[in-house]
Specification:
Keywords: Disulfide bond, Endoplasmic reticulum, Isomerase, Redox-active center, Repeat, Signal. This is protein disulfide-isomerase. The chain is built from 8 helices and 5 strands. The protein is of the alpha/beta class.
Length: 176
Amino acid sequence: MLPRVRLLLLALSALVLSVLADYGPRDSVVVLTDKNFEKEVLQSPDYWLVEFYAPWCGHCKQLEPEYKAAAKKLKKHARLGVVDATVHQQLAHKYQIKGYPTIKEFGAKKKRPQDYRGGRTTREIVQYVKNSAEAKKLGVSGANVATLEYDKVHAFVNKDLPSAIFFGSPKKMATR
């Protein structure tokens, strides 16, 4: 009798935990499926971080609020998505997902995503995206931000002659 009770409690615990891992339409995180992955990620000009997770995974649950907060902060710079790898097993197999959570970086070479090698806090995820070479290749704003010194701009603009300021990437300016 005791082993059955333990098994039942274990099953109920797994069910409760699976319900807690919940990404929804109110989040800045895009829920990706077998049906929308191609269009949303691979055909998109955007930079993506995609988390492959399992609803029962404790580490995935710990990452969830951090990932949601990072998605919100990066909303204008990059897209963050999630794939329930227990449901969308073809995607998990295609991208060789062996454990959870696994985050892949889909940059300029969408067909060959890179493994995410950053931390698991909101700050670390945001920094990773802003410093990512793949993000920079796609022109992610925030990745090439320079500090503009007010006093120098103010002095330039207040001259007696007409003036203009060009805002752009040094790399893009050099190739024109």
